[in-house]
Amino acid sequence: MSRIAYVNGRYQDMRDASVNIEDRGYQFADGIYEVCEVRGGKLVDMPRHLARLQRSLGELRIAEPMPLSALSVVMHEVVRRNRVQFGIVYLQISRGVARRDHGFPAGSVKPSVVVTARTINPAKGAENAARGIKVITVPENRWPRVDIKSTALLPNVLAKQAAREAGAYEAWYVDSDGFVTEGSSSNAWIVTKEGRVVTRPDKSGILSGITRSVLKDALEALQIRFEERAFTPEEAAGAAEAFVTAASMIVMPVVAIDGHTIGSGKPGPVALRLREQFHRFAAFS
Ligand code: PMP
C-alpha cells in the first residue's frame, strides 16, 4: 500500500508529494513540528500537542495556517488514509515559500503544512523496553530556545548519530554546569535509590515534552515521589534506574550511561510500571 501525505491542502501519494525548493523550511529550517503517538488508530494527547504547536508558532511568529481544530482533522485523516493503528503522525509547518532572504518575507506568505503518518511495530518498542537502552553523553551545543519545537535539528541529528556509532540508542546533552538537559529526541529521567523520580524542570534547557507532562500527572495519581531538579551524568550512573520519555517511545528504560551500568543493568521496576500505566493517563481522540 502506498503512503499518503497531506501537503498544502492535498492528500497525495508520498511518491508524488513535494514542497517548493524555496520553502523556508527547506532553506532555513524556519519551521516547527509535532509528533504524536497513534495507538489503536487513535491519536494520543492531541490537545497538549496542539497547545505546544500553537506556542511554537507564536514564539517564531509564524501564522496559524488553519484553525487548530482543522489541523486535528487533517492529522486524523492522514492516520486513517494510511491505516495506521500503531505508530506516529508527523506534522510540520514552515513559514512558507519566498525568495531566499534571511529576514521574514514581506506581505502575507502562506505557511506550508505537511502531515505524514507511519506504522511502527509495537513489538519493536516492547523488545527495546524489555532489554533497556544505552545512552551516551555529549556536550550541549544547541541554541538556548530548545523550548521551541523547531525543525532546526542538526545538533540533535549529530548527537543521535554519535549514539548509534557508540552502540547506544540515545545521547543525553550535558550543559556547561555539568547537568543533563535532555536527550536528542527525548526527555531524561532517573529514579534515585530512595525511589524518587527526578527530571529537569522545563524552565530552561529542555523541550517541554508532552509525554513528560502526562507522566507527571501519572506520578501524582500513583503517589510516586517526584522531584523536578537537574541531575548530573554521575548521579545517573549511580541511580537505581533511568529512563527517557517521548511520544514515539513512551517510557523507555535506560540501563547504561557512557558504558556504566545503571542499577541492576536491567530495566527497573519503576520505569516498567510507568510504561505499563502510562496510557491510563493519556487522552485518546
Ligand atoms: N526533547 C526533544 C529534544 C525531543 O525531540 C522530544 C521528542 N519530540 C522530546 C524531548 C519529548 O517530547 P514528547 O514527549 O512531546 O515527544
UniProtKB/TrEMBL annotation:
Pathway: Amino-acid biosynthesis; L-valine biosynthesis; L-valine from pyruvate: step 4/4; Amino-acid biosynthesis; L-leucine biosynthesis; L-leucine from 3-methyl-2-oxobutanoate: step 4/4; Amino-acid biosynthesis; L-isoleucine biosynthesis; L-isoleucine from 2-oxobutanoate: step 4/4
EC id: 2.6.1.42
This protein's record includes keyword Endoplasmic reticulum: no
SUPFAM superfamilies assigned to the protein according to its UniProt record, in alphabetical order: D-aminoacid aminotransferase-like PLP-dependent enzymes (SSF56752)
Catalytic activity from the UniProt record: L-isoleucine + 2-oxoglutarate = (S)-3-methyl-2-oxopentanoate + L-glutamate; L-valine + 2-oxoglutarate = 3-methyl-2-oxobutanoate + L-glutamate; L-leucine + 2-oxoglutarate = 4-methyl-2-oxopentanoate + L-glutamate
CDD domains: D-AAT_like (cd01558)
Transmembrane domains' residue ranges: none
InterPro entries (alphabetical): Aminotrans_IV (IPR001544), Aminotransferase-like (IPR036038), BCAT-like_C (IPR043132), BCAT-like_N (IPR043131), Class-IV_PLP-Dep_Aminotrnsfr (IPR050571)
Pfam families given in the database record: Aminotran_4 (PF01063)
Keywords: Amino-acid biosynthesis, Branched-chain amino acid biosynthesis
Reported function: Acts on leucine, isoleucine and valine.
Similarity annotation: Belongs to the class-IV pyridoxal-phosphate-dependent aminotransferase family.
Annotated protein name in UniProt: Probable branched-chain-amino-acid aminotransferase
Organism, as annotated: Rhodopseudomonas telluris
